[in-house]
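All the exercises in this workshop are built on plain-text protein records. A record pairs a protein's sequence with a compact description of its fold. Read left to right, the backbone structure tokens trace the chain's path through space. Once this layout is familiar, the rest of the handout is easier to follow. Here is such a record, shown just as it appears in the course material:
>
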Amino acid sequence: MSDEEHQFESKADAGASKTYPQQAGTIRKNGHLVIKGRPCKVVEVSTSKTGKHGHAKCHFVAIDIFNGKKLEDIVPSSHNCDVPHVNRTDYQLIDISEDGFVSLLTENGNTKDDLRLPTDDTLLSQIKSGFEEGKDLVVSVMSAMGEEQICGLKDIGPKN
């Protein structure tokens, strides 16, 4: 067959893919898409007609779900695009450390201490003020492609 040597890097995970393929023509507004290696939320889709030489093309305008940057991509509608697996999980906020990390309570009773406070100023001030007032806060954490970030906040009432 071929005389090339193939080397595979093994990483310690369950083999779950960070993305899955989806035909470009089926991706809609508010869906997710990987553009330039970043997980994005689609805010605009326009499709051009089939030209003289081939495929109809989809023009995607999307916003990076972690840093808010606007990205664009043009893909033939019959080709596959990478779509990230995006999950949202709610955790109860236990503590905020001096260096900007949060301590969160998971569903099984363990703590999760590897997340930083969000960079979004309004969300950051809501979390800090609610925590200082002694409220019970639940934060929503969005995860995709190996990244996690706090993206929402719920106030479930004062601590007893």
